[in-house]
Amino acid sequence: MRTFRYVVADVFTDTPLAGNPLAVFTDGRGLEDDELQRLARELNLSETVFVLSPEAGGHARIRIFTPSVELPFAGHPTLGTAFVLGGPLQLGEIRLETLSGIVPVELEREGDRIVFGEMLQPLPTWEPYAAAEALLAALGVERSELPVEHYDNGARFAYVGLPSVEELTALRPDVGALLDVPGLLGAYCFAGSGGKWRARMFAPGGGIAEDPATGSAAGPFAVHLARHGRIGFGDEIEITQGVEIGRPSTLFARADGTADRLERVEVGGSAVIVARGEFRLP
């Protein structure tokens, strides 16, 4: 029997059983591609990570799976893996190789404990979302407060603004209709102002009805707000997500540069390890 050990971390929180749970297989060598996907489906978390030997100058290479697809990049898996590996490796910064390139994560400590991590995300591209009308209909929303645009940083999201947190909380999307919206990986819905925002993210096409915390969407969200004048470039925002599904999460995001020349996108938060286990496979 082959044994594969994993760690479960709750990400974008410092409280166990909150945030976005993540499974990290700390040594994924010896697993076939179909086994990676089947293990992610077995655990049925938003994402599962498999750590492999580095190939491009990073400290480790990671592969990220939802229950149904592999992702080139995702935020909470990258941050959570940095917490899991950063402790034993005693690194101030860990560089993780993803399919979207190397993502550095700077780690802050209090004594021996990692308390915060901040990742430098791949710079996103954006364009108007061609299926905006179908997306709004599937969400049950008449209009968006900002243009409905599609961002891609290795993960892909369409952004829809709601007039108030109350209307965001009241959303009851038509999951079947969301599955039929062409080219949609995730629908990121938001409300708020200034430095405080609330968000919900629906991705049934990726096997995720609603995500408790979406780090890969938080960076482009800061870009989206700055491009449309709701915040300034260089301003940090605090995003609360997951409240409606009982997994409150807190994310911090900042976009530096200008609308014409984006320079840096950073997303940070905390994580806490809550469980360890192993799979035994033939």
List the helices and strands and how they pair.
Layout: E1 2-11, E2 20-25, H1 33-43, E3 47-52, E4 60-65, E5 70-71, H2 75-89, E6 93-98, E7 101-110, E8 113-120, E9 125-128, H3 132-139, E10 149-152, E11 156-161, H4 165-169, H5 175-180, E12 186-193, E13 196-203, E14 208-211, H6 215-227, E15 236-241, E16 249-257, E17 262-269, E18 271-281
Parallel strand pairs: 2-3, 4-6, 11-12, 13-15
Antiparallel strand pairs: 1-2, 1-18, 3-4, 4-5, 6-7, 7-8, 8-17, 9-10, 10-11, 12-13, 13-14, 15-16, 16-17
Question: What does this entry look like structurally?
Answer:
The protein has 282 residues and is α+β, with helices and mostly antiparallel strands. Helices cover 21% and strands 43% of the residues. The chain has an 18-stranded mixed β-sheet that branches. Strand 1 and strand 2 form a beta hairpin. The longest helix is centred in the N-terminal third of the chain and has 15 residues. The termini are close together. 49% of the residues are buried. The model has no long low-confidence stretch (mean pLDDT 96).
